[in-house]
Design brief:
The complex is a heterodimer of chains A (282) and B (338).
Chain A lengths: L13 H39 L2 H16 L2 H16 L3 H31 L1 H16 L2 H12 L3 H25 L3 H9 L4 H30 L1 H5 L6 H10 L3 H29 L1
Chain B lengths: L1 H24 L6 E5 L3 H18 L3 E5 L2 H9 L5 E5 L5 H8 L3 E8 L4 E6 H5 L35 E5 L5 H12 L6 E5 L3 H14 L4 E5 L3 H5 L2 E3 L7 H8 L16 E6 H6 L1 H9 L4 H14 L3 H11 L1 H5 L4 H10 L1
Parallel strand pairs in B: 1-2, 6-7, 6-8
Antiparallel strand pairs in B: 3-10, 4-10, 5-8, 5-9
Helix pairs in contact in B: 2-13, 2-15, 3-4
The chains are: A mainly alpha (282), B alpha/beta (338).
Chain lengths: 282, 338
Amino acid sequence: MSNGFPQALQFSFADSVNRLVDWLVLNYGDHLRTVSDQLLQLLVGLENLLRLLPWWLLLLLVGLLAWHASRSLLRSAVLVALLALIGMLGLWDKLLQTLALVLVSTGLCVLVGVPLGILLASRPLARRLLLPVLDVMQTLPAFVYLIPVLMLFGLGKVPAVFATLIYALPPLVRLTELGLSQIDPSLLQAAHGLGATRWQRLRRIALPLALPSIMAGLNQSVMMALSMVVVASMIGARGLGEDVLAGIQTLNVGQGVEAGLAIVALAMVIDRISQAYGRIAR
Amino acid sequence: MNKFATLLTGLILAVGLANTNNAVSAEQRPPIHFGAIGWESGALTTEILRLIVERGYGYTTDTLPGSTVSMEVALARNDLQVIAEEWAGRSPAWVKAEQAGQVFALGNTVKNAEEGWWVPAYVIEGDAARKLKPLAPELRSVDDLKRYPQVFRDPESPDKGRFLNSPSGWTSETVNSQKLKAYGLNDLYTNFRSGSGAAMDAEIGSAIRRGQPVLFYYWDPTPLMGRYKLIRLEEPPFDAQAWATLTDAGNPNPKGSRSLPAKLSIGVSKAFREGYPDLVAVFEQIDLPIDRLNKALADMSEKRTPPREAALSFLRDNREVWKAWLPADVAGKVEGSL
């Protein structure tokens, strides 16, 4: 084996990481499981709520939402047809599970991402510190943090939400920050001059002006959350990703394509609706 | 643009030079490509075979990474020549290639390999040292599971127990789902697919370290079996007819039975089988004793030894085992190199 780099300069911190994870599992494993059970209740609750809706009612709701957003009958009809197609492929229940997962993780994304974006836009130091963190979140291979998260929080939906959150958060943070930093400073100064407080300036001027950018970020987050669905299924979260995975593992290309296209269809439905709302904001 | 062209020519020249260098040094034969199997027993077996092939016969070898299915497909196309641990007959990709005569399963490398349903010993016996009470003291067979769903509570639906099945897509996933039906456990336990082997190991490992009850499908040879004290739940004896109902996912009334004893072989491509008759003869002889293998795997995973080193120490510690497979002169060469 050729080993160009000098031996004396090499080191490995793998052992310390292993010991740290072991220690965390031993000492905090049980506590963290109770925390994860709470989040799980939320997810399962949402899932059951979606299941309670008859299929036609859900389609109708999506159609109404699409129409409200785009005011186009044709577009709404196409989106409803796409969703119905997933049901016709026999993937309705898996669709609901995936939808619940994506909704919860996107909800958490907004709760965390928008405030972070505001922080980044207003504090240059935070910006300098957090940008590299965002890079890590987007590029670190998911399984590197998934397995330890899984050992701490248990198999299934909860680590899947964490993984999705880590991967899908950065675009929302970045675009929120971009939207806020592109606002003409004279507008804010004018508001300041008129006696508006910090909170009023943010709430009444900055956020509405940055909304198109934030909506674009949200849209990207949802798309990335959907692309994590297959990875999520690799840690025991059920849904459309499960079928893709099973299809790949058994060389059943057809099954994989069906489930894969169902994910694409769901993505298009969410994408078109959220983009239409973004355009209204503009 | 001109600069770019010069650069490109230089690059092509350099690559060409590097290639001719290679061609001179490895004149006789291209290296034998082994599939770089990710799971422990496969990784260890791969390295044991490579050591024997390299040191006993002087062939060069190399490994290529991939998932199980992609390795099987590569084997059929002779992009890979050897998969050291092939659960032949378990995957549709393999069965198809074998019927087409593109791949062959050689030998029976690990006899008495088991698969089934397991619980950690402390669930039944308790563990005074860790202050664990026996939560299911009378758990012996799969039938007894009916009395203990609350012990293995599933956080996603708390009124049921959780049975940790293998990832969907594995053949064993179908069998386990049918077994749940056959043993009348379908309403008491959720059939939880673990998604991937890594996720499954992490969940089981975490539960055992925390001393929590866990009920799971597993198999050996694996580090887990050598490392922890686990108890296998009794199942009805093996019955071919019942087994057929278990492997057919569409059968509504499956009958219970132990799993078909697993057959682990060495998968080789057609070209390899024709080109290396000496190695084929050895591969057919290979027989790894399961308890020693489990032990070696447990050591390897606990100390996190690289597979190559673990294979070397396996060869050093078990000389009588591998000498039985090899012609005397080859065995001498391998022994001399250890």
